[in-house]
Amino acid sequence: MGYKTIIEDNIDILVAGAGLGGTGAAFEARYWGQNKKIVIAEKANIDRSGAVAQGLYAINCYMGTRFGENNPEDHVRYARIDLMGMVREDLAFDMARHVDSAVHQFEEWGMPIMRNEKTGAYLREGRWQIMIHGESYKPLVAEAAKNSADKVFNRICVTHLLMDEAKENRVAGAVGFNVRTGNYHVFKSKTVICGAGGASNIFKPRSIGEGAGRVWYAPWSSGSAYGLMIEAGAKMTQMENRIVLARFKDGYGPVGAYFLHLKTYTQNAYGEEYESKWFPALQEMVGKEYLDPEVSHTTHRPIPTCLRNHAIISEVNAGRGPIQMVTMEAFQDPHLEEIGWHNFLGMTVGQAVLWAATDVDPKYENPELTTSEPYVMGSHATGCGAWCSGPEDVSPEEYFWGYNRMTTVEGLFGAGDAVGGTPHAFSSGSFTEGRLSAKAACKYIDDGKAEGIVVSDAQIQRRKEEIYKPMETYTVGRNEIVAGSVNPNYINPRQGLDRLQKLMDEYCGGFGVNYMTNDKLLSIGLKKMAILGEDLDKVAASDIHELLRAWELKHRFLTSEAVFQHTMFRKETRWPGYYYRGDALKVDDENWHVLTVSRRDPKTGEYTMEKAPLYHLVGDIEDKDLAKLKAEGHH
Amino acid sequence: MPTFVYMTRCDGCGQCVDICPSDIMHIDKTLRRAYNIEPNMCWECYSCVKACPHHAIDVRGYADFAPLGHSVRVHRDEEKGVIAWRIKFRNGKKDMDLLAPITTKPWGAGHPKLSEQPAPSAEMRNSELLFNEPKYVRMDDGGLHTLESNGLEIKEGVYY
Question: Which residue of B has its CA nearest to A222?
Fold first, then answer.
């Protein structure tokens, strides 16, 4: 295989993966490092890559302090209750205090943000969401990143991080291959900002066959954020905290604008309100601190998303499904009807296609909802990702080691899905995290922390052999059989992915088992994972495109292994509606009011797990309504 | 929903290949035209459909749940800054045209070049501020929020 080795040397800041997090990093890095060499390596084309490739119809994280709407601590409190307490509040506060400045710049760059004609403020969909015409969201932010970067390498699948050989646990760049030419690319860099994505398609999806790509999170989100960082020995946090989405059936079209702006609501198949009847028993499981419908009714405090999922799952199991979205009222208003359709066209076109194909007109019919397969990510309403340092002026000592958003590997930073414990960042918050990482990475370099990095030719050569091994495996094994895909020497990436998804579904709490698992199932699952890991050494790729799928699979595998380990470690059911530990069906604040932190030893592959303390912001941050209720003795 | 390419419209220019986030639009070596090589990794994101200069790419809903006979077509115009959609139902009863802006400015005109900005001061470097801050946080003269400014502490334990 005569693929060339192309070395890009003397990079200061390498952005590995440029979705919203990575573009934010590349953009900002130029300001703090005006003479620094900034390079982007992206698996696809940064004009349409990452989770926002398709566009968005809302920005879900905007404080609106400018319009007197929310302060950063309000956002922290919201994320905290939604995630049942498990949030890195230092990181969340930090993101929230900067996020508006990102959004205001987006508007300046040409993003059409809708305005409330009466107040002049941005048009709110809900308390945190503003409405945009965001079809070109990604090309717009990509333009900013391109203005700042020295070089953009599109179509490079980054497979591994390079590690310094002079100083242990320090990053030295990354390697990968070009999915068009097949060439081997080496990026020698003083710092790496990992902006790669979270993981879709690790749990068996509800859709089958041709429809397997109709997943909620993008199918190209291959868990590479975690695959890259775990493999390098970075500590991870909250990897058990997978998310299950209640969405329009099959198309997984978004429901946010429907609930919040169009004021649609759900009911069971018999037209009944179903949620409240599940709450008393659920309150027994999670405690009044986490579920108090009275408080939620009178204040801004939301009922955690997982608990609302629990009500849907329970109602369907009781035989009164499907749950339906009542659209027939709102859609009588032609303006709202138009918004309903625009909402899909702006970010999930497939849902519009599905309704057109099935003649579902929400004006005359209430569409079905379903709960999705689980996803592992860190930027939407969940917080999987790397254990990162927070900002100096906010973080307690356990959360601070010198540079904002730096992982436990020196010189390796994160943004977006890569950073753990920061749910509800969404697109704007991910971009903001990228900016924070970039500033910190420049400081790290300026402080002389990246001096004397050594990368040997042996390391570069070893990775090259590893990267192309699936093609070698194919070439050697292929001629033993006449034709077809059944071969005793190897599996192809699709076969490996199918096996991973089935295993995750059945042993780690997928939709097929109603999101249920326990210690025994997890143990069996982990054994099977170890064997799958061995078989993935024999994954075969017939061409460069399949080689891309092979490495995506390996990243998904590493992600899944961490999910198993974390799920096993946390002996409680913290998020009913996301998953259940049948052997520990309650929230256990006495033992598990902590963040889970893991590290996979890069040499042995062994996991060590630990608990990290959970800090909360306290002070004058309560809702006035909530304070009143408390004063009246309700809480 | 998986994309497909009309034989008579595609000229093999490769715009779709260049833009597809999933790397599934490839050029057929014999026919020298594009096609979807892996429909089950297609997110129906329409990136290729929008990028095709000949409107040669269309979408047919996933075979596992979407019946035949529908259409969702799009025309994205970067110069005019708009995107136009047409949705047609299978039963023919609904046929909608929808138009939305995609930008408020000529493409790229609003983007700054950070290399040409005055370099940040040492004080700025040692602060928690990002580019354009604090101004852009609230678009006024206010400073960045801190624990102190907002009367907050960060404490270990269980507080609700």
Answer: B22
> How high is the pLDDT of residue A618?
86
Type of residue found at A92: A
- pLDDT class of A635 with cuts at 50, 70, 90: very low
**Structure token pair of residue A185:** 């690319």
Q: Do B65 and A47 touch (CB under 8 A)?
A: no
pTM of the complete model beyond 0.90: yes
pLDDT exceeds 70 at position B1? no
pLDDT of A624 over the 60 cut? no
Among A355-359, A554-558, A622-626, the range scoring the smallest mean pLDDT is A622-626
Which sequence positions of B are flagged as catalytic? 43
CB atoms A219 and B22 under 8 Å = yes
Q: Which value does ipTM take for this structure? A: 0.97
Q: Are the C-beta atoms of A106 and A20 separated by less than 8 Å?
A: no
Please state, in angstroms and rounded to a whole number, the distance separating the CA atoms of residues B22 and A105. Answer: 29
CA distances to A312, A581, A585 from A576, rounded to whole Å, are 11, 9, 8
Facing A53 at nearest CB: one of B47, B81, B138: B47
Name the phi and psi angles at B124, rounded to 5. Answer: -65, -40
**Which of A44, A220, A356 is closest, CB to CB, to B72?**
A356
Pick the residue of B154, B155, B156, B159 with the most A CBs within 10 A to test the interface with A by mutation: B154
Spell out the CATH class of B3-101: alpha beta
Do A212 and B104 lie within an 8 Å CB cutoff? no
pLDDT tens-digit series, residues B16-26: 999 999 999 99
**Which residue is closest to B144 within chain A, CA to CA?**
A97
Of A30, A110, A621, the CB nearest to B114: A30
Residues A341 and A254: beta-carbon distance below 8 Å: no
The CATH 3.30.70.20 portion of chain B extends over 3-101
Side-chain half-sphere CA neighbours of B41 within 13 A = 22
Q: How far is it, in rounded angstroms, from Cα A231 to Cα A200?
A: 19
Domains in chain A, CATH or no CATH each: 246-371 (3.90.700.10)
